[in-house]
Amino acid sequence: AMAEQQQQQQAWGRARHFIAGSASGVALVLAGHPFDSIKVRVQTENTGRFKGPLDALRQTVRKEGVLAVYKGVSPPLLATGGVNFLLFGMQGWFVQEIAAQRGHAQAELSDIAVAAVFSGFLISSVVSPMEGVKARLQVNYATTRAAATYSGPLHCIRSIVQPPLGLRRGLYRGWLPTALCRMSNYAYFAPYEYFRRKVSPLDAEGRPQRTLGASIVAGGLSGTTYWLSCYPMDVIKNRMQAAPDTWPPRYTGLLHTARCIYAEGGWRAFFRGFTPCVLRAFPANASCFLAFEMTMKLLPERLNSQ
Question: What are phi and psi of 152, to 5 degrees?
């Protein structure tokens, strides 16, 4: 019975991470989507339509209304809830396994970083099609539904899986840069834990307590370190995903896309939209980790075994 109880507790410990992860995803999207819309528009626009992020925001709101910054929000809202459910759940699982393998009583930052590379790689197969659809919808400048290339996410998916594109060249276009971006999660989960331990008040035994204030600060900072680690790759990814769905394709692969971006504006072009991205990173990821820690606090640590 003891062993069974222990197994149940372990399963519940993992389940908590999955449940809290879905809450973190919803918070992340609600706080961050308006910034994200502007970022994608600035990154993918090369006809000089916008002077910069603020001008893009002004024009978008003036021409398409205030809610235009929430265009394309329903897929990531459902999806990021689901993605973070998987991501935070797998991350919690891998950290436990890797720390146990290495004989660490408490997970070390290196355990967390290694776990993040694995969980990031696995999650990329789920997020790649989703982000591809989101990017295509966000660069839809049409003010009426009839004028839009895609009327919504389902129409978009149906169109791009048709030949000649199909799954690999259509729905999964840009998978490699997506995987490389997601494997940079080592610069997300490890800094979160590092900053959280640094800014948390200590309990009687000298261990950092889990406070909501610390999770806000650490969450905001880890969002920033993540983007510093992989922003140019994100530009390449969005450029590949938001390209017109023509055959032959505009970009043949990651390196070709990078060469095209460099030819347009040198190394600076790889940092287009960096300002709205970093401005968003703090509040969005502070909200994300706050929601995660709050949910973890609300869910009992142990199941009462009657």
Answer: 180, 180
